[in-house]
């Protein structure tokens, strides 16, 4: 046993490669895209290290060419879910007893593999399976995944370095136990990095997981699982279980050994999991930790002193990158009437210049939304606006799902600050503008705070530093991530810990100590050198 005290240094963030024409990274990526396009694969369940194939299958299709099948996957039934739970409980013994530095080394090796050997593989799978362009795949599937892995090792080393004081005649220690039982991880389609982190954060702290990946991101998620195993992750530490969310959720929540849920996705799903856990509370061995990041209705608040071009560019990128399917995407914007004519011109110029299409054409800025349900949902909101006397569509407004699920980046201008598309999460490329009277700044900021139940991200644009500060204070509980003169998307691990409050989740800040601490259940150990031998208090013996 190596008893040295380890300190992992603060890592630097993964560099975003440029993928210029004829660059090595671009050529490798193009080769890998072709390979994945031409060779559909099979995606088995992976339970206790074994590949399992069931009688129920599904297909992974490309959102931007939905006739094209990328993979066939196998779906779990109740039996496989129970096998996954048993495998996680079995692996818990070895994994939780292993030196945390060995666990750290596996995370660091996985980061190395993703940054190097498998960079093109994980990027291509994310591009084809989730319809991300090169840049959006690179910042997610490679850079953020690598950052989560490396920074979690660093943050874990800081947590493990914390010990209580020891007074005279005693020694006090904290033992950082993982949770007792297994962690159920439920990942969304939209970020490969989130799928990785939902598992690897609890795993770093010695936990084992039963993982339900989203069916629409299975290609990249399966490659992640293979990379973790190549990095040395023992059998059963993560159990990869694709299939129906409701079936898997129902079976997992019946287990008395459920120690926690690490979730990212919609409010509806998280609320249903929370309610089910509450309903069965007395049946669990511990109070399950419920950590969930959910929806958002993120805003930009432009002050009359803001610069029009900056507001327009950041509104466009914040609202429409990855087709608005980031939890942090801007979907409502408040613009003073004095700036609106200029901002409108700038926004329309950008809309006219940005292309939409297949991810294999690098000139396409916009790609497809994830599936038919999402396409229909976006078009319902757009059609609602088209029919409303309170709204005007000034850009986009059309969709076409013949070849792929393409929704034009759409800008709605409304006269009603509580218009449906100002309040509800759409999770697609739809941005609503409310133009306010310059003299009504304060009440507009109040409106912005009160309009939606969420509290995820938001930004103010202003060149008046005092006004910025006042707005920052007024919007204190409106977001968990607040931006000044920047778009409210693109949080970076180690720089802007991410998470929202109100209806946006439990705000445990992914990629930092706050989150990792939720995955341990510390035991305090006090040892006394001279145990008491007299029961009376001192004054009783006078
Ligand atoms: P979703 O809720 O539809 O699905 C998330 C996961 O839950 C999927 O794996 C799904 O199969 C699973 N699931 C569904 N029903 C289940 C059940 N009854 N039991 C167990 N699992 C179940 O969400 P999505 O469409 O994949 O993602 C989009 C949502 O995620 C948006 O609302 C977005 O705002 C949110 N999101 C939030 C953050 C954040 O950090 N706040 C980040 C990314 C995405």
What is this structure's SSE topology?
Blueprint: H1 24-38, E1 41-43, E2 45-47, E3 50-52, E4 57-62, E5 65-74, H2 78-97, H3 100-115, H4 119-130, H5 134-160, E6 170-178, E7 182-186, H6 192-204, E8 209-212, H7 218-230, E9 238-240, H8 245-253, E10 258-264, H9 267-279, E11 289-293, E12 298-302, H10 308-320, E13 330-336, H11 340-353, E14 355-356, E15 364-366, H12 372-387, E16 391-395, E17 399-400, E18 406-407, E19 410-414, H13 420-423, E20 430-436, H14 441-450, E21 454-455, E22 457-461, H15 465-474, E23 481-484, E24 501-502, H16 513-517, E25 520-528
Parallel strand pairs: 1-5, 7-8, 7-10, 8-9, 10-11, 12-13, 12-22, 13-20, 14-15, 19-20, 22-23
Antiparallel strand pairs: 2-3, 4-5, 6-25, 16-19, 17-18, 21-24
This protein binds nicotinamide-adenine-dinucleotide (NAD).
Structure overview:
- With 542 residues, the protein is an alpha/beta fold.
- The protein has 2 domains: 25-294 and 505-525, 3-Layer(aba) Sandwich (Aldehyde Dehydrogenase, Chain A, domain 1); 298-484, Aldehyde Dehydrogenase, Chain A, domain 2 (3-Layer(aba) Sandwich).
- Helix content is 39%, strand content 22%.
- The strands form 8 sheets. Strands 16-19-20-13-12-22-23 form a 7-stranded mixed beta sheet, sandwiched between helices. A 5-stranded parallel beta sheet has the order 9-8-7-10-11, sandwiched between helices. A 3-stranded mixed beta sheet has the order 1-5-4.
- Helix 10 packs across helix 11.
- The N and C termini lie far apart (51 Å).
- The structure holds nicotinamide-adenine-dinucleotide.
- The site of nicotinamide-adenine-dinucleotide has 31 residues, from helix 8 and helix 9.
């Amino acid at each position: 046993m190596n008893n040295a005290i380890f300190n992992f240094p603060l890592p630097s963030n993964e560099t975003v490669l440029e993928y210029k024409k004829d660059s090595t990274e671009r050529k490798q990526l193009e080769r890998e895209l072709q390979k994945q396009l031409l060779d559909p694969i099979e995606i088995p369940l992976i339970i206790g290290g074994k590949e399992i194939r069931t009688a129920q299958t599904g297909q992974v299709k490309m959102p931007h060419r939905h006739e094209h099948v990328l993979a066939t996957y196998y779906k779990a039934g109740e039996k496989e879910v129970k096998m996954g739970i048993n495998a996680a409980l079995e692996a818990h013994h070895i994994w939780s007893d292993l030196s945390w530095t060995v666990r750290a080394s596996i995370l660091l090796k996985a980061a190395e593999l993703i940054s190097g050997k498998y960079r093109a593989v994980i990027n291509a799978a994310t591009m084809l399976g989730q319809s991300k362009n090169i840049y959006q795949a690179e910042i997610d599937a490679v850079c953020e995944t690598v950052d989560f892995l490396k920074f979690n090792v660093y943050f874990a080393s800081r947590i493990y370095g914390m010990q209580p004081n020891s007074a005279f005649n005693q020694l006090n220690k904290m033992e950082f136990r993982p949770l007792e039982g297994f962690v159920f991880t439920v990942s969304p389609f939209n970020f490969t990095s989130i799928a990785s982190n939902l598992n690897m954060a609890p795993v770093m702290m010695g936990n084992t997981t039963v993982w339900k990946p989203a069916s629409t991101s299975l290609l990249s998620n399966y490659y992640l699982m293979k990379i973790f195993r190549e990095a040395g992750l023992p059998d059963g530490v993560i159990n990869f279980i694709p299939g129906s969310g409701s079936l898997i959720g129902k079976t997992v929540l019946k287990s008395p050994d459920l120690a926690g849920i690490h979730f990212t996705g919609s409010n509806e799903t998280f609320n249903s999991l929370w309610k089910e856990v509450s309903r069965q509370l007395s049946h669990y061995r511990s109070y399950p930790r419920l950590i969930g990041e959910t929806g958002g209705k993120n805003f930009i608040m432009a002050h009359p002193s803001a610069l029009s071009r900056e507001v327009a560019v950041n509104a466009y990128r914040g609202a429409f990158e990855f087709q608005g399917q980031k939890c942090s995407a801007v979907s409502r914007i408040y613009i003073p009437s004095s700036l609106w004519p200029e901002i409108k011109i700038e926004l329309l110029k950008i809309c006219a210049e940005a292309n939409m299409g297949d991810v294999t054409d690098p000139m396409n800025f916009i790609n497809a939304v994830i599936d038919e349900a999402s396409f229909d949902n976006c078009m319902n909101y757009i059609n609602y606006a088209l029919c409303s006397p309170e709204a005007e569509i000034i850009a986009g407004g059309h969709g076409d799902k013949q070849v792929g699920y393409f929704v034009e980046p759409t800008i709605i201008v409304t006269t009603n600050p509580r218009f449906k598309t100002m309040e509800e999460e759409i999770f697609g490329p739809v941005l609503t503008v409310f133009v306010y009277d310059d003299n009504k700044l304060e009440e507009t900021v109040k409106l912005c705070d009160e309009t939606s139940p969420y509290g995820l991200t938001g930004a103010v644009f202003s060149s008046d530093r005092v006004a910025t500060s006042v707005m920052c204070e007024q919007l204190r509980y409106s977001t968990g991530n607040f931006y000044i003169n920047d778009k409210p998307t693109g949080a970076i691990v180690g720089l802007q810990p991410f998470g929202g409050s109100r209806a946006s989740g439990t705000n445990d800040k992914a990629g930092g100590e706050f989150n990792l601490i939720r995955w341990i259940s510390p035991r305090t150990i006090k040892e006394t050198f001279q145990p008491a031998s007299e029961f009376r208090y001192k004054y009783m013996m006078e």
